[in-house]
Each structure stands twice: as structure tokens, then as C-alpha cells.
Amino acid sequence: MIHLEHLTKEYDMPGGKAGKLVAANAIDLTVPRGEIFGLIGPNGAGKTTTLKMICGLLAPTAGRVTVHGVDVERHPEQAQRHLGYLADFFSVYDDLTVWEYVDYFAHAYKMAEAVIPGRVDDVIRIVGLEAKRDSFISGLSRGMKQRLGIARAILHSPPILVLDEPTSGLDPKARHELKQLLVELNRAGATLFITTHILSDVEEICTSVAILEKGVLLRCGPLAAVMQEARGGRRLRVRLAAPGFGLAEWLAAQPGVTEVMADATSAVFLLAGDDARTAELVGRLVVAGAPVCGVEDASENLEALYSRLSSGETM
Amino acid sequence: MIPLWKNPEFIRNCRAQLRPRRLALVASIVAALSLVVGYALSQANSTGWGRAYLVAVLYAQILTLFLGGGVACSRAISQEREQNTFDYQRVTQLTSLEIALGKLFGAPAISYFATFCMFPAALVGDVAANIPIGRLLTAYLLIFTGAIAFHSVALFVSLCTSKSAGGITGVWGVGLVVVFFLVSSASEASRMFLELGSLGPGAAVEFALHGSWDVEAPTAPIMGHAYAGSAWTDVFFGIPLHHVPVLLVLYLILTAWCLLPLARNLKRDPALLELFSPAQSVGLLAYINLILVGFYVTDRPAFGLQREYGAPLLSVTFGFFLVANMTLLCVLGLVLLRNREQSRRLAHRRGASGFDWREAAWPAMYILAGAACAAALFLARFARPGVFKNDLDAGFAVFVSVLLLATLLRDLCFLQWMNMRRSRRPLMQGIILLWVFYFCGGILLAMARFSKPVHTAFMAIVSPWGLAISGAEEQQRWSLFPGPWYVGLAIQIALVTFFAAQYYKSMAELRPAALPAPASAGTAGD
Questions:
Q1: Are residues A103 and A246 in the same domain?
Q2: Using the beta-carbon criterion (under 8 Å), do A105 and B88 form an inter-chain contact?
Q3: What are the chain A neighbours of B87 within 8 Å (beta carbons)?
Q4: Which residues pair with A238 in a beta bridge?
Q5: Of A56-65, A191-200, B150-159, where does mean pLDDT reach its minimum?
Q6: Is residue A309 part of a domain?
Q7: Is pLDDT at B58 greater than 60 in this prediction?
Q8: Which residues contact B10 (CB under 8 A, 6 or more apart)?
Q9: What is the separation of C-alpha B405 from the centre of its chain, rounded to a whole number of angstroms?
Q10: Which CATH number covers residue A250?
Q11: Nearest residue, CB atoms, A80 vs list B93, B268, B424
Q12: If you write DSSP's letter for every residue of A251-270 in order, what string do you get?
């Protein structure tokens, strides 16, 4: 669906300093159909720049973006037909009503005249703004304006939604509703490309993730795989019913087991391998006479992973 | 292409501006003002009040349309950039031209409405003054076509203005153009060197009051007075034409030239703005030259510079076209200059293969092409025996043209190099430095005027622009002592080479370096 090929964007360093600021450093990336793809990174990592290049709003210094097989720079309008875009700032025409705003974009996307009235009403309903249909946008709350932005982005039923920080600045209720809406849109067939620095949102709704820092793609892939790859295996916790087994020594002697931290009745360790390898290890532990009463996943969350991978930049 | 009445951008502007309460307010204000002014005029002058009233209403309409609409258009794009709403328009299926047309007719919607509200008052004035309705309608045709041309200029200004300074710069730009239009309406200044009537909207008022459809070719001046002939006759390549259709065509072509960069750039990355392609720039230069050459007076002296009437002098005509074309080439050169972002993309595209000398001396190739085009038009029109009294040495004319062209290229190559500096407004810094150079040079030149050799050498090297309007004395000096002038030319060419080399060096720095390779890349969902 979205394919970035050696995508590069360079700027001058701010303040006239020597050197260059690389917002995207030869990024190669493919986002397949049906994903909720989260691009994460600290402020200034190049997320918004990358996203704007995908939408054809910024021209790359080098490389290219294809959306649905269409080169964005060569045929921007053709590519933009497949895209719905939401920026990270609220920018709406305050002097229009909600209905007029959505109707304007329906015509601007050149939808068939006959379907516009129905679709405008549908979209206003989907984002829950029916009660505000004839209200001026200037009177809407921040959350409502964000939903109006989503309405505009999904209006022409694009197969790809590109959303820049869609949940930032919203209150918890509005954030929750918006996330639900995004998941519903994904279930309805849309591919979502989201940039955010709220990692819990990514963990909650994204199926794939990429970590970007200083324009460099540090990790990319399905969420679970990225985390596993970053860890070099899966982190497990084994609990024993009683002390006295010598768990730390036994685990340290097993192949593929590293980073063992143990006390008398439990141990957390990293195991290189898949589910079968886990089952085999637990089986051998039981055979060795350990009174195993529990094995559980002790994975670090995305935030911890990000902190470990990145160079300490704050999100 | 979406028809205008279905253009979403046009409809959005109309919806936002033409709310019923606002319309009622504007209509009430216009009605009250029309009634009061009409009553006051009828009381002050019971016989000729209709004519005065019509003039007042027409000028009020011109001001409302040109000033009100112009300001709205000059902010139409820059304001959207400021409010961050423009990106959403850029990702829609509307083409740049459709967005431009929507803004061109939509942004001044309230000004159009106020103008329409004044129609009844104009009609009352027209009937009271006993003026044929056809003349009034023709005047309105000129006013509205002129307004569209003017609004397209304002929209063009809005495209060029930056995000932060958009509003202020836009209003200034429009203010200047308004002054130009009003001044050109009020006077017959253009008749000094062109057989072309006034270009401003005031011509429409004039036509409503005194217009005629007679086309009368101008005759030679008698006893030192201006030529006789109809005030509504223009002469294009010797063919008498009525001023109204000429003005309409000029307005429409101006609109087209302003819409062209809008259609090219509205949806483009603002950092890569390219108002005209090099070929279009040369085309614009050729068009302006065609207008100047076509309408230039040939049967009387231009500017009233000559003491005696008779055949006009070739040197005056040459000076006029040299100054006009150097100015045009300078503007087009500035338009073609590349910024760092454009140069960086070019550097990445070329990669290790580098650039050739044509890239380094940018935009010299197109300036030379434009100059060749202008020279060809000039020669085709005027280099015929009997058109002018030939008081110009051909060798001098060619040399001066080459020297001034080299000087212009020197300045443009300097600005191109400066435009590669890392600062917020590098081009502005370059222009300021150039201005300081010319200011100091001008003072030193004035100080050196008592020593002919020093003055000549200084002029040839620093600022030979005075040669464009040089007279016989300068020609004589050139033929007697050509040495310093040739040295001056050689120095200009050396400086062009130097600045081109500096630009080349700056471009080389922007080539892709060995960037650290990305640590990981891949496919989501694998």
C-alpha cells in the first residue's frame, strides 16, 4: 500500500550552523494493506516530515514514495485519491458550519454529486457530530474539531489514512473514542499510518511499528516481532512453589538463556526462540525436579524498549 | 475542469462571506450612502448632478472592487498557509488551477456583492446624465475585466509571500499596484512612448462619460503639439485599433500570465516554488517586448525628449528598450534563481556525476536566450531604413548591450551564490549587499567625474548602467578610447566566472555525503 524507497529529506541546520539536519535518512519501508502502522519517535525525529512526504505535501530530497503503486511526486493527485490525511494541528474553517465543511471537502475530492449528501450525513454520524451538524466550527471543542478532521479524512473512503498525532491534546474520553473509531475504520478495511509519541496508544491499537530517530529507522515490523527482535528473544518469568532448587544456576547453564535475574523462588530471563523452545525449556525444568508453579511473559513494554533503543531522547 | 459555479473553493468563500445578515448589513450601508450622496449632489448642482453622481458611483465601485477585492486576494493563499488549512486543500483532487480560480472569484465575494449593490445608483446617474446604456455596460465590462486581472496579480503576490509576512507584504504589493492602476488611469503617461491609451480602470469611467467607437489613426504632430486622432485609438504595428478591445485583451492576457504560476505552484512544496519555467520566463519577456515594440511610437519622438519634432531618434528608442529589457531580464533572473532546497535536490539527482558549467552559471543561459529574443524583436521592427533618424553607432550599440548583459549576469550570479548561504533570507541579504555596492559605487563615480579617464574606467568596471541612456558624448568617448571599456567587459566576464565557480562549490557541498546507513529497514507486517 505504502512503499518508501530510499526516502531522504535533508534540511539546513537551524540558526545557520554548519552541517545538515537529516529528517529522513534513506528510509526503505513497506506498509502492507490492512495494517495499523505506528511510526514512533521523539520530537524532531522526522515523523511528520516522513508523513508529509507520503502525502505529497513535501518533496523528498531524494528517493520516492509510492502509494497504491502510484508515484506520489509524479502523480500527486492520483496518489492522494487513495489517501486521507489528518495533520497534527487543528486547522479548520471556523466560519463554516460542520455540514458546510464536510460538504466542501466532498466536492473538493470530486465525489459523485449524487452520493455527496448521503455520504456527508454518514460521515458526520460516524464521528458522532450529528448534534452539531449546523453549528459553526468556531463553537466546537478541541475533541470535536479533531473528529471533524477525521470526518474529512475518511470522507472519500480512502483505503489509506495518514494521521499525524491523532490523539494528542485530547482528553482521556475523547482519546478513547478516537482510538475505537480508528480500530473500527481498520476493521472496515482501511490501512492506517499513524505517527505518535504516545507509546501506549501504539501498543493498544497498532499492528506494526517503526521506530524513527534522527531520520534513521531503528526498528520496523509487526509490533510483537519488533519487540522480540529488539530484546533478542522473549523475556519469561518462572515461579517455584518452594525455594531450594538452584534456579539461577540451572537456567544459566541452558543454551539460549541469557540475562538471568533470580531470587530463591523466581527468575526472569531472556530466551532466544519461539513457543516450542519455551515449552521444551519448561518441560526440562520440571523433569529436573523444579517445583514450577507458574511461567509467564515478562516482556518489557514498548516504552522501555524505546528507551533502550533510542539514545535517551525524550518522547 | 469544474465550472466556476460548482467550484468548491468558490462556493466555500461565498458561503463564508455571504451570510444573510452580513449581506443585509452591506446592502443597507450601500443604500444609505448612495441615497445621501445622490441627494447632496442633486442639491448642489441641479443640472449636471447625474454625471457627477455616475462618476462618484463608478469610482466607488472601482475602489471597492480593486482595493477590497485586491486585499482579499492578496491574503487568500498566505492566510491559509498561516492557518494551516492550505495543506488540506493541497491533498484534495482539486487541481491547482481550480483552487486558483476558486480563490480568484471567491475571495473577493463580498466586494463583488457591494459593487452589485451600487448598480441601481449607477443606473440612476446614467439616466439622469442621459448617457447611452451601452457605454455604461462597456465601462462595466472594462471594470470587471480589469478587476479580475488585478485580483489575479494580488493572488500571485499572495503565492509569493512567505507564511509569516504574508498579510503585510501582500497588502503592500496590492497597494503599489493600486497606485499604479490609479495613476495610469488619471494620466495619459503611456502615450509618451506608446500608442496605447490608459491602462487603469479610470479608462472605463472616461469611456462611460465621453467614449466613442470611432477609430481614427493618429496623424503627425503639427507645430510641436501632440498628434491628432481619436483618444480611443491605439496603434499596434501600424494598425489602428479601438482602445476598449485592446484593453480587454491586455487584461485577459495579464490574468493568464498570473494564473500560470498559480497553476504551476499552488500544490507544490513551497520550498520548491518555481514561478515560471525557464522557457515560460523567456516567453513572458518576449510577450512584454512584443507589446512594447508593437505599440511603440514611430511617427513622433517619444518622451518629448527631442527639442525638434520630425523623425524620432534611434538612440532614444534604443535606450528605452535597453533599459526596459535590462529591468525585465533582472526580474526574470531573480525569478529563476535557485534556493538551497532546489539546489540540494539537484545535487542529489546528479549525484557523483556532478554538474556542468551551465548549471554553475545559472541562470545565464536563459538570460542570454531572453536577450537574444528581445534583440531579434527590436531589430525586426526598427532596423529598417526610414523608421528612425539613425544617430546610433551600431558597434557602440552592440558593445553596450553586451557589457550591460555581462554586468547583469555578474549581479545575478552573485545573487545565486548568495542565495546558497545558510541564513533565513539569503537572497535579501545578497540584494542588500548589492545595493550597498551600487550606493558606494555611485558616490565614488560622482566623485570621479572630474577626471574623464578615471570616471570612464570606474564606470566600465563598477557600474556601466549609465551607458544605457548615454548620448553622443559617450559614443564619442567609446570610439576614441575603447580600451577601458573592453577591460571593463573582461572584468565583468571574469567576475561572472568567479561567482559561478563559487556557486558550483556550494552545490558540490550539497551532494549526498556518506550518510550513516540506516540500522534497520523493512516491511511492516512481515
A1: no
A2: yes
A3: 52, 55, 57, 85, 87, 91
A4: A267, A295
A5: A191-200
A6: no
A7: yes
A8: B4, B101, B102, B105, B106
A9: 21
A10: 3.30.70.100
A11: B93
A12: HHTSTTEEEEEE-SSEEEEE
Largest CA distance in chain B: 93
Domain co-membership, A195 together with A264: no
Domain shared by A64 and A206, yes or no:
yes
Domain of residue A142, CATH code: 3.40.50.300
Alpha-carbon distance B208 to B123, whole Å?
Answer: 12
B521 with A28: Cβ contact below 8 A: yes
Provide the chain B residues 264-293 that lie in CB contact (below 8 A) with chain A: 267-269, 271-272
Give phi and psi for A4, each to the nearest 5: -105, 130
Say yes or no: A297 and A242 in one domain: yes
Q: In what side-by-side order are the strands of the sheet with A234-240?
A: A257-262, A266-271, A234-240, A292-297
Q: Answer whether B1 touches A (CB < 8 Å).
A: no
Q: Tell me the three cell numbers of residue A141.
A: 471543542
Q: Report pTM.
A: 0.84
**Disruptive mutation site among A6, A8, A10 for chain B (greatest number of B CBs within 10 Å):** A10
Answer whether A109 sits within 8 Å of B268, measured CB to CB. no
Residue entry with cell 499510518: A193
User: How many domains does chain A fold into?
Assistant: 2
For residue A311, tell me if it sits in a domain: no
A218, B340: Cβ pair inside 8 Å? no
Q: Is residue A312 part of a domain?
A: no
Nearest to B269 among A59, A81, A100 (CB): A59
**Burial class for A267, CB neighbours closer than 10 Å (0-12, 13-18, 19+):** buried
pLDDT digits (tens, 9 = 90+) for A215-265: 888 888 888 777 766 666 778 889 998 888 888 889 988 888 888 888 888
pLDDT single digits (tens) B231-255? 788 889 888 899 999 999 999 999 9
Cell 457605454 sits at which residue?
A: B135
Tell which of A175, A200, A228 closes a domain: A228
Question: φ, ψ for residue B468 (rounded to 5)?
Answer: -60, -30
Residues A184 and A113 in one domain: yes
| Closest chain A residue to B1, measured at CA | A110
Domain limits for position A257: 232-304
Cell 545595493 belongs to B435
Q: CA of A133, closest CA in chain B: separation in Å?
A: 16
Contact A93 B85 (CB under 8 A): yes
Q: Looking at chain A, how many residues does it have?
A: 315
Cell of residue B119, nine digits: 448598480
Q: Which of A195, A210, A228 is the last residue of a domain?
A: A228
- Under an 8 A CB cutoff, do A217 and B340 touch? no
Between B435 and B468, name the one with better pLDDT: B435
Give chain A positions within 8 Å (CB) of B423: 16
Distance in angstroms (rounded) separating the CA atoms of residues B66 and B13: 18
Q: Is residue A104 part of a domain?
A: yes
Between chains, do A32 and B523 touch, taking CB under 8 Å as contact?
A: yes
